[in-house]
Amino acid sequence: MNQKKLQIWLPLLLAIAVFLGMVFGYKLKSNMGQYSPSFFGKEKKTSLQEILELVRTKYVDTVNTDSLGQMAIKNVISQLDPHSVYIPADFLKTVNDDLKGSFEGVGIEFGMIDDTVTVLKLFPKGPAEKAGIKPADQILSANDSLVSGIRSRADRIRKLFRGEKGSEVKVKLLRNGQPQTLVIQRGVIPLSPVDVAYMIEPGVGFIRVNKFTNDSYEEFMQNLERLKKEGMAKLILDLRDNGGGMLDDAIQMADEFLSDAKEIVYTEGKASPRQVFTARRPGMFEEGKVVVLIDEGSASASEVLTGALQDWDRGTIVGRRSFGKGLVQEQFQLSDGSALRLTISRYFTPIGRSIQKPYSRGATEDYNEEIMNRFNNGAMFRNDSANHTGRTYKTKGGRKVYGGGGISPDVFVPADSAEFLMFKHHEMVKEIIEEAAFVYYMRNQAKLKAITTPQQLQQELQNDAAIWAVYNERALKKDMSLSEFSAAHKNVLLRYLGARLAHFLWGREGYYKMINLSDPMVQKGLEEIRK
Which residue among the candidates 311, 384, 410, 416 is catalytic per the annotation? Predict the structure, then answer.
């Protein structure tokens, strides 16, 4: 009987003994301070954690150790690859909005005309338009913060107008010289990933995709289907200055051009097993000639799509060598609201090419300057395949292509040196173009609204000296003059002045229809697709 009682109580007695031992051990550990042993095998603090704690508790002045920690993190990440990045909590929403393809705000495009925030364009049916804001309104203040009459930074002004959906911003403005006060309720402003989609000539569609967001594929498909109904048999796909984004949307787009179960891309990393992505369904444009336009601004997901079409000889690639980003990032949420976008794998085209250009750890500045180096060494002005240091590959059809430094085009189009230098070294020129186009538009609305096509607008501007008078008027206010520019520069100016005017007349579609009339790469794409 006693033995049975012992069997019943023994487990309980052992549990009590273990508990008392834990309590005693904890008390002993607290008395031993920094010399105490690790409890339950807990990892000891790193040197970085110890230093930050010492600064917080022992330093002569009060220091924000969170800021110091962020600096340390950024320094650590900078020693990895150029695309791994730490995103502070207060900037994370902006970054995520960019991938999401929308932001919360009022929906206006503005410019600084004589140090005054002037409404240039409204998002159709957006919050500002609903509140009664009109083009040419001069905004003086937003929620009692002065924005005009001083040289305000554009990003500061945007921050005043952006905010949570449903929140309000009170604006004081001048309309035709008369003061008004309007209240705008902020809303969700969609950012279309497709700049334009139209029939550039009979049977030939033109689609420009500016980034790969969550809804890029869906919007691309809507436009592809519409153009096919309009008689599209051939397609020019413009991926210039498309820095990438969501890899999945680029893969789905590639699927629409490739038949059977053709491989599109595969990814692989030390802790990321090889993952192969293939065409999974019948595509909407598996037949019909395709030309893809790329340049040094085409990166990442753009290169995935372009590389797949080139490897399978499915499209003719026209333009200049792409950026060369073949690293895949995953975003990890951190406990303080910040995030780490960490490179976890590399992507490879169907024939095994890595498009990632060379880089040295910690040399991010040199990496970012590589594009300017192409300009300086002439690679942007001649077919630069000889500059490739990566392996040579053969496409499925036997054509020679390269890895290790971007996608090289099948048909090279040199950069316009006048345009490149003018916008690289004269950022103010962009402001003058915007101001001059707006002032010219406001002075000539009746004449301009009678024009119905980009071709007519192009002809009108070529014969109208008034546009140059307005440009020079605006330039002189910024201590610049039209006399500084050569004939080649003036051709570039006229191209962009016309595009801005077309934007005022016909929106974003008008802008691209106008600029495509004299865009050398678009014209070369048309030449190739007609063959």
Answer: 311
| Among the listed residues 264, 346, 251, the one whose alpha carbon sits nearest the alpha carbon of residue 311 | 264
Residue 106 to residue 391: CA distance in whole angstroms: 50
The more confident residue out of 10 and 93 is 93
Partners of residue 108 on adjacent β-strands: 122
Separation between Cα atoms, residue 243 and residue 270, nearest integer Å: 25
b/e code 333-350 from CB counts within 10 Å (16+ = b)? eeeeebbbbbbbbbbbbb
Tell me how far apart the alpha carbons of residues 394 and 399 are, in angstroms, rounded to a whole number: 5
Q: How far apart are the first and last CA of the chain?
A: 102
Query: Choosing from 211, 234, 325, 524, which is the catalytic residue?
Result: 325
Task: Assess whether 325 carries a catalytic annotation.
Answer: yes
pLDDT digits (tens, 9 = 90+) for 358-373: 888 777 788 888 888 8
Q: Given 148, 298, 300, 302, which residue is catalytic?
A: 300
What would the pLDDT profile of 233-249 be if each residue is shown by its tens digit? 999 999 999 999 999 99
DSSP state of 281: S
Distance, CA of 77 to CA of 334 (rounded, Å): 15
Stated length of the chain: 531
Token digits of residue 459: 């002809």
One-letter identity of residue 10 = L
Residue 114: alpha-carbon gap to chain centroid: 30
311 is catalytic: yes
- Bridge partners of residue 118, in order along the sequence: 111, 138
pLDDT at 423: 76
User: Which amino acid appears at position 424 of this protein?
Assistant: K
Strands (E), 186-271: 187-190, 194-201, 204-209, 234-238, 263-269
Query: Cα 263 to chain center, whole Å?
Result: 26
> Which residue from 515, 528, 531, 530 is spatially nearest to 292, judged by alpha carbons?
528
Two structure tokens written together for 353: 């090419």
Judge contact between 429 and 481, C-beta under 8 A.
no
- Token pair 């932001």 is found at 103
Q: Is-contact 87 341, C-beta < 8 A?
A: yes
